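the two lines:
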Amino acid sequence: MRSHLVLLSIFAFLVSLVFALLNRDTPREQAQFGGLLFAGFLAAGIVLGWLMYVFPL
Amino acid sequence: MPATAEETPSRSLVLLCIAAWAIPGAGHLWLGRTAKGALLLVALPFMFVLGLAIDGRLFPFQLSLADPLVGLAAFADVGIGLIYFVASALGYGGGEVRAVTYEYGNTFLVVAGLLNLLVVIDAYDTAVGRK
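prediction for all of em together
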């Protein structure tokens, strides 16, 4: 497994899952919070990736 | 000698924290939070094993001022509990620095350990009634 996007997505999913379980009590709240975190991780990863493409370190 | 009324709860708390550290999710399962414990029991070891599978490295304990982050990474790796020692004993976690996924693997291993430490704190908070 060498795809950066797949690894980033798996990482984002697992971290979001644990944070949602620890920070919210009901399953509905956990799903909402976890989904928001997951989307935020993915969006931030993609935006930062493109920024580094334009402005390499 | 029988334990006093004050010793018993604190001893249980210590055992709870040790169990929660040793086996991810065990603290929540102990407290009857079955769904949460089961999800943690699957998610965190999966993250750790995936980190090993993609050539991550289990960092050695060393006190070196030249490379202090190695010691901190080793501390984070151990946060996952018994599975760290099993993987070490079986020879996993050597790390392949030339692999394209090496840094991803390290990140998965370190974050899995740190997340498990957060889980231990959450189990403790739940046990003492803060949550």
